[in-house]
Write a structure and sequence with these properties.
Cofactor: Mg(2+); Mn(2+)
Bound molecules: adenosine-5'-diphosphate
Distance between the termini: 14 Å
Helix content: 25-40%
Shape: globular
Strand order of the largest sheet: 5-4-3-2-1-6-8-7
Catalytic activity: acetate + ATP = acetyl phosphate + ADP
Subcellular location: Cytoplasm
Organism: Candidatus Ozemobacter sibiricus
InterPro entries: Ac/propionate_kinase, Aliphatic_acid_kin_short-chain, Aliphatic_acid_kinase_CS, ATPase_NBD
Structural class: alpha/beta
């Protein structure tokens, strides 16, 4: 069964096609600059070289039409015709408290996802546009929604209620939700496979460290806490997001600089984090290239500080979740930074032997670029693993499972 996976952002459409009979990735690509000048599609069929084509797409529907065109192209395509698409799985960022699992999209589900727009005003609307576009172009194809929040719906109230007047939870469902759920779920399952132990018996801390970043505490197969909150702004210091700060600072800076709500929102989400501290780049590769000596020689001491703050915050969350879980069996690193950065993994795990974490420097250095494996010393009580994430595969698997049951 061939399944199309879509991840629609505000001006981008990422796609992958899987043949679930073999769990094989057939093609992948993305449309960028949807609704802006200079729209293009990047596409890769199997292992063939990537191609880029300039296109016109004033909205997500036109963008998706281009995706379907290239997927049925004689040269670049993977379908003879569109009838071969048996289901479409969508990444949906926020499912609120309604969705603890992936679901088949019905009118009621669509309404519920629309209700969650208030929780994720930037993310859920483009997700909805993708669903609506497929419904218009391929009306008979079943669609499934896979939520970033659903894996964390198992968190207990002590982890998700804020120290705010309780009425905000009762009236508006203001609480911690957590994100990156498909990734935390995937890598924790994979960790159990690598350790050859039952998932339900393990305590695992997963660190999804990309441009956006979060840590999760997973006890016996259930997420019991995670660092992102009501929005993906809480928790770790990220590429451009501030993570945890004293909330009084929001008021203080707005007052001092006379900022509007939108300006403050942009500061916290787009100008802060590693970019804000380093005053240079949000891309960890830039900062790491010269870490630490070259950055000092280049008069970029703040690049070193930004990296060290990033790692320090991850370290603090690991310590906190060790306390939450009463120790853990495995610590997992994933996503762009977690998979590829021995420097960050070393900064995070250094001098953590008290907690049972000990990295093997050689294994740590050699594990990157899609490699998976155990990077801890033989005598470490906690197995520290690197596991490349694959959120699209999770979406395809959930879609396959739900559509097959139909
Ligand atoms: P997102 O999906 O949140 O945009 P990714 O998981 O793709 O993020 O991660 C992007 C981040 O990964 C970037 O900050 C990039 O600097 C970092 N990254 C990618 N490759 C490397 C590498 N070899 N070393 C260090 N950081 C890397």
């Amino acid at each position: 069964m061939k399944i199309l996976v879509l991840n629609c952002g505000s001006s981008s459409i990422k796609y992958q096609v899987f043949d679930m009979d073999y769990e094989a990735l057939l093609a992948k690509g993305l449309v960028e600059r949807v609704g802006i000048n200079g729209t293009f599609i990047k596409h890769q069929r199997g292992d063939q070289p990537k191609i880029t084509r300039d296109i016109e797409a004033k909205d997500h529907k036109e963008g998706i039409q281009h995706v379907l065109e290239i997927l049925t192209d004689a040269d670049q395509g993977v379908f003879k015709n569109l009838d071969e698409i048996k289901a479409v799985g969508h990444r949906v960022v926020h499912g609120g408290e309604k969705f603890a699992d992936s679901v088949l999209i019905t009118h009621e589900v669509l309404e519920a996802v629309r209700e969650c727009v208030k929780f994720a005003p930037l993310h859920n609307p483009p997700n909805l546009k993708g669903i609506e576009a497929i419904a218009a172009i391929l009306p008979n194809v079943p669609q499934v929604a896979v939520f970033d929040t659903s894996f964390h719906q198992t968190m207990p109230p002590v982890a998700y209620i804020y120290g705010l007047p309780y009425k905000y939870y009762e009236q508006d469902r203001i609480r911690r939700y957590g994100f990156h759920g498909t990734s935390h779920r995937f890598v924790s399952h994979r960790a159990a496979q690598l350790l050859q132990k039952p998932y339900e018996k393990l305590k695992i801390i997963t660190c999804h460290l990309g441009n956006g970043a979060s840590v999760a505490a997973i006890k016996h197969g259930k997420s019991v806490d995670t660092s992102m909150g009501h929005t993906p702004l809480e928790g770790l210091v990220m590429g451009t997001r501030c993570g945890d700060i004293d909330p009084a600072l929001v008021l203080h800076i707005m007052k001092k600089e006379n900022l509007t709500i939108d300006e403050m929102d942009t500061l916290l989400n787009k100008k802060a984090g590693i970019l804000g501290i380093s005053q240079w780049s949000s891309d960890q590769r830039d900062l790491e290239d010269g870490y630490p000596e070259q950055n000092l020689k280049n008069n970029k001491p703040l690049a070193n500080l930004a990296l060290e703050i990033f790692a320090y915050r991850v370290r603090k969350y690991i310590g906190a979740y060790m306390a939450v879980l009463n120790g853990c069996d495995a610590l997992v690193f994933t996503a762009g930074v977690g998979e590829n950065s021995p420097i960050i993994r070393d900064l995070v795990c250094r001098d953590m032997d008290f907690l049972g974490v000990k990295l093997d420097p050689e294994k740590n250095k050699k594990t990157w670029r899609g490699a998976e494996g155990d990077i801890s010393t033989a005598d470490a009580r906690v197995r520290t693993l690197v596991v490349p994430t694959n959120e699209e595969l999770v979406i395809a698997e959930d879609t396959y499972a739900i559509v097959r049951k139909k």
